[in-house]
Amino acid sequence: MLSSTNFWMCFAGLTYLAAGVCVFRKKIIAARGWDKLIALGCVFLAVPLAVFAPEHFRGPEFVQNMVPRWMPARWFWAYFVGCALLAAATSLTVRKYVRLSSALLGLMFFLFVCMLYLPLVLAHPKSRFAWAYMLRDLSFAGGAWALAGLQSRASSPQVSKWMILFGRIVIAIAAIFYAVQHFLHPEFAPGVPLEEMTPAWVPFPSVWGYLAGAILLAAGIGLALNKKSRIAAASIGALMTVLTVCLYMVILILARSGPEINDALNYVADTLLYAGGALALASALPHGPEPVEKT
Q1: Which partner from 21, 96, 105, 129 sits 20 to 30 angstroms from 180, CA to CA?
Q2: CB 159, CB 152: distance < 8 Å
Q3: Which long-range contacts (C-beta less than 8 Å, at least 24 apart) are formed by 176-180?
Q4: CB 45 within 8 A of CB 273
């Protein structure tokens, strides 16, 4: 039941996953503890970008659903973003021009927030899904900019500091908001709390919602207060990685129709990209408390 778009989304994701693990294998093997997972941050950023790219090449269908009607040359922007996603995924995978690609990637997601999701929130301020979408893409921008900040630390320390700070704050806010949503609506699938309900085959579904909420709340508070922030960011990355593999990948495997497969692929990619953003932030944060500057 795979459509051509779904096939290429799967193929791109698997290809970039294999390539990324191959490129980063030495770093992963040499790392210890949390750093093994943190070392996968760039891979977990690149793979979802590659998965999303073929969707943008659907042309008129994608334009009808996503690109704002007021934008000129609407078809062009769908194809342009698809190419940009593949370029960023390639850069992150082969570790070339990472500073530039991550900075531009963060800018792209920030523009998505301003052009797509902020108007949605303003039009529907009481919609928790509108807020969830906006904070999701803002977190993607924050993770990408944190990675750019890490790459800029030697050449532009002040810019690097502000980019990492932005990533830490927005991911903290998103984590706390998502935690509250998990406590209020534990029947919805854990992770990024969107419209997907927890499947009936999952035992004790509400328990997993509360557990995910507790982890996100503790990690979000840690990030907001800058207390054990590296571990907090890595904890969010670990939670989202587990949910990607143990929940959303299973939902994808069990999907039967083309639309179901497409929705499942998007949930897999969304959750993994959130994990990648959190792990990218963790890689940019210090291992211990930041030193106090003397005045």
Answers
A1: 105
A2: yes
A3: 176/216, 176/217, 176/220, 176/221, 176/224, 177/131, 177/132, 177/135, 178/132, 178/135, 178/213, 178/216, 178/220, 179/212, 179/213, 179/214, 179/215, 179/216, 179/217, 179/220, 180/213, 180/217
A4: yes
- Is residue 178 within 8 Å of 188, Cβ to Cβ? no
pTM above 0.90, yes or no: yes
Termini Cα distance of the chain: 65
Task: Indicate the DSSP class of residue 95.
Answer: T
Q: Under DSSP, is residue 197 helix (H, G, I), strand (E, B) or coil?
A: strand
Give CA–CA dist 216/176, Å, rounded: 6
Query: Is the confidence at residue 96, as pLDDT, over 90?
Result: yes
- The mean pLDDT value for 119-147 works out to 96
Q: CA 275 from chain center: how many Å? A: 6
| 202 and 247 Cβ atoms separated by less than 8 Å | yes
How many Å apart are CA 191 and CA 236, to the nearest integer? 9
> How far apart (Å, rounded) are the C-alpha atoms in residues 205 and 214?
15
Compute the distance between CA of residue 84 and CA of residue 108 in angstroms, rounded to an integer: 9
DSSP SS3 for 189: coil
217 and 178 Cβ atoms separated by less than 8 Å: no
For residue 295, what pLDDT band results from cuts at 50, 70 and 90? very low
C-alpha 113/C-alpha 135 separation (Å) is 8
* Amino acid 34: pLDDT: 87
Q: How confident is the model at residue 75 (pLDDT cuts 50, 70, 90)?
A: confident
What is the C-alpha separation between 239 and 245, in angstroms, rounded?
10
